[in-house]
Specification:
With 110 residues, the chain is of the alpha+beta class. It is built from two helices and six strands, in the order βββααβββ. The relative contact order is 0.24. This is Halobacterial output domain-containing protein. Pfam families: HalOD1.
């Protein structure tokens, strides 16, 4: 089985490169609109680790404030803002796009 790495700049579509580490891409369009961004991130990290969210050894709060993450791409007037945030949690790099897409990439094969 060939592993693929997905990379993205900004909110551009994700490209796939063969031979890269394990990657999980959670698309906002595939989720219920009521799902908080922080919950989507937790679920994507758990999927990348092949565990249930409740079985993860580290919590999202170890890397970022989940409440702040939920509010990150909305200004005080409720307008959507463009951008992305990237952080590491354990052996994974997490990229959260302003459109709600979440990309989890294994960076350390622990």
């Amino acid at each position: 089985m060939t592993m693929a790495e997905r990379t993205a700049d900004g909110d551009d579509p994700v490209e796939i490169r063969e031979g890269g580490p394990r990657v999980v891409h959670s698309r906002a369009a595939d989720r219920d609109r009521e799902t908080d961004l922080s919950i989507a991130v937790i679920e994507a990290i758990a999927e990348a680790k092949a565990v249930e969210p409740t079985e993860m050894d580290a919590t999202l709060y170890d890397a970022v404030d989940p409440d702040a993450l939920d509010r990150l791409f909305t200004d005080r007037e409720g307008e959507a803002l463009a951008g992305r945030v990237v952080f590491e949690l354990g052996a994974h790099e997490v990229t959260v796009q302003s459109n709600g897409d979440v990309l989890v990439r294994q960076i350390d094969p622990r």
